[in-house]
Q: What sequence folds into this?
């Protein structure tokens, strides 16, 4: 199975994990998924000081800037497999 198919399977598997991951892990999943599917984050960081979720997501994704889609996919797959046990 190629990496794209493995990634798509991991994305499907992430929706049926036996327990909900903690917030830090959810941010990792989000940022790796976005980097895999859209590439580097663009635009400005959210400026609303009370919008903690959007800011956290933006910052988590921004950390991955420059990482290739394939590398991000592999890390996403590895993380989901780890969460599945």
A:
């Amino acid at each position: 199975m190629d990496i794209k198919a493995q990634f798509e399977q991991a994305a499907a598997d992430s929706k049926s994990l036996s327990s909900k991951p903690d917030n830090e892990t959810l941010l990792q999943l989000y940022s790796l998924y976005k980097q895999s599917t859209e590439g580097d984050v663009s635009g400005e960081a959210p400026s609303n000081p009370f919008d903690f979720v959007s800011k956290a997501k933006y910052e988590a994704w921004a950390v991955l800037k420059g990482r290739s889609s394939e590398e991000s996919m592999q890390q996403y797959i590895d993380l989901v497999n780890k969460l599945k046990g």
Remarks:
- The chain has one domain: 3-40+50-84.
- The radius of gyration is 13 Å.
- The domain at 3-40+50-84 is CATH 1.20.80.10 (Acyl-CoA Binding Protein).
